[in-house]
Amino acid sequence: MSAPRETATQTISYSDLVALLAQVFLRHGTSAEVARVLAENCASAERDGAHSHGVFRIPGYVSTLASGWVDGKAIPVVEDVASGFVRVDAGNGFAQPALAAARALLLEKARSAGIAVLAIRNSHHFAALWPDVEPFAYQGLVALSVVNSMTCVVPHGAERPLFGTNPIAFAAPRAGGDPIVFDLATSAMAHGDVQIAAREGRSLPPGVGVDREGRPTCDPKAILDGGALLPFGGHKGSALSMMVELLAAALTGGNFSFEFDWSKHPGAKTPWTGQLIIVIDPAKSAGRDFAERSQTLVSQMQGVGLQRLPGDRRHRQRAESLREGIVLAVSDLQQLRALAGQ
Ligand code: NDP
Ligand code: PYC
Fold first, then answer.
1. What is the domain-level CATH number for residue 215?
2. How far apart are the first and last CA of the chain?
3. pLDDT in tens, 89-144
4. Residue 164 shares a structural domain with residue 116
5. Which end of the chain is more exposed for a tag (fewer CB within 10 A), N or C?
6. 167 and 270, same domain (yes or no)
7. Which of 42, 94, 145, 149 to mutate for ligand 2's pocket (most ligand atoms within 8 Å of CB)?
8. Within 6 Å (CB) of ligand 1, which residues are found?
9. Is 52 marked active-site?
10. Mean pLDDT by 10 residues, the chain (342 residues)
11. Both 259 and 111 in a single domain?
12. CATH assignment at residue 58
């Protein structure tokens, strides 16, 4: 999925898209709870214009479920391990239902201890990361999450890929406005965006990846066909990607991006790794109101000429989608309806 945007389109409401996607997940082997959580996650990405992790991902979810690589009916096991630490074994299921299962306990701990860590392991994350942190900011909390993916990024100074595309997402409350949220792959480009560029026949900017011989290339197909991505910002992005491997895998008990072998599951696309979420209650910090301080910072940034905050584009697109409906290619909608058995 991801027909070029100039193809025939149709609009669908957010709630209808959630219902349609839930039907797709259910029909392809998930439990009702997993279908609900993944459908909301995927529809939210599409609603916010995060196309690389919206309905574009559905064929990958479906082929992965069909391959037996992931357990769509896994029941996460939540463990209360310390005053500020919650562990979840996702049971080879998806990470988002694991977060949903642990959410209430994580919130309670963050409010009482001032900070709490959620360590999810044995989990698959195939989505955007901001939906995992943004809701905490709407509840007045600061949240940071990292997840590792699959080997496709060459560490800075190395010769072959090892790291995943390893995103970092952050959310913080802001007085009188949407929370401050950013969510970025530590690779120069998300793997999903490389796939979309390949399908649309677009070339990439220099510095994104290398071909199978390790030579710099702007051809997305060469990156996907035996080549690899580079970290963003050279050694700096590479260090952050290494940090993500340590926090999301080593600290949680999940797999590093290079540790799983899905070759015996043709069609498998979802990385089998781990995820870490840290939630902080700013009410425990000294003195001034955190959300007011966030707004002060934003005002100052705007005062020096900043036109666009991270998250602004998504929030603008969200408002438009909720007002006018989500625009999908007709062919994508037909494919979703067929997958839903309609
Ligand atoms: P982008 O480079 O598109 O955006 C990164 C962040 O920068 C966003 O918060 C974005 O805000 C902000 N931003 C973009 N342009 C500007 C600008 N000009 N000024 C200020 N802020 C800006 O994201 P990536 O390609 O790095 O990642 C895309 C998605 O892929 C993410 O959601 C990530 O979680 C997901 N991903 C998931 C993986 C997984 O394993 N599950 C692995 C890798 C990536 P805005 O949203 O408003 O555009
Ligand atoms: O876009 O890099 C990516 C990605 C990896 C796993 C899910 N999304």
1. 3.30.60.50
2. 18
3. 999 999 999 999 999 999 999 999 999 999 999 999 999 999 999 999 999 999 99
4. yes
5. C
6. yes
7. 149
8. 50, 52-53, 125-130, 147, 149, 165, 167, 169, 182-185, 189-190, 192-193, 271, 308, 310-314
9. yes
10. 69 98 98 98 98 97 98 98 98 98 98 98 98 98 98 98 98 96 98 97 98 98 98 98 99 98 97 98 89 97 97 97 98 97 95
11. yes
12. 1.10.1530.10
Instruction: Look up the domain containing 199 and give its range.
Output: 188-229
Which one from 71, 132, 193, 281 is the annotated catalytic residue? 193
Known catalytic residue at 294: no
What is the CA(63)–ligand 2 centre distance, in A?
16
Are residues 208 and 259 part of one domain?
Answer: no
Element at 142 (helix H, strand E): strand 142-147
pLDDT at 1: 57
Which of 260, 303, 277 lies closest to 145, judged by CA?
A: 277
Catalytic residue at 299?
A: no
167 and 143 both lie in a single domain: yes
Task: Tell which atom from ligand 2 comes closest to the C-alpha of 194.
Answer: 1
Protein residue closest via CA to atom 4 of ligand 2: 191
CATH number of the domain encompassing residue 166: 3.30.1370.60
Give rounded-to-5 percent helix, strand, coil for the chain. Answer: 40, 20, 35
Strands 142-147 and 180-184: unpaired
Closest residue by Cα to atom 2, ligand 2, is 191
User: CB of 290 closer than 6 A to ligand 2?
Assistant: no
Q: Please check whether residue 33 is in contact with residue 72, taking contact to mean a CB–CB distance below 8 angstroms.
A: no
Under a CB-based contact definition with an 8 Å cutoff, are residues 290 and 168 in contact?
no
Distance 133 CA to ligand 2 centre (A): 17
> Does ligand 2 lie within 6 Å of residue 191's CB atom?
yes
Q: Which helix (H) or strand (E) holds 119?
A: strand 115-124
Residue 39 CB less than 6 A away from ligand 2: no
One domain, residues 162 and 80: yes
Q: Which of 207, 229, 251 is at the close of a domain?
A: 229
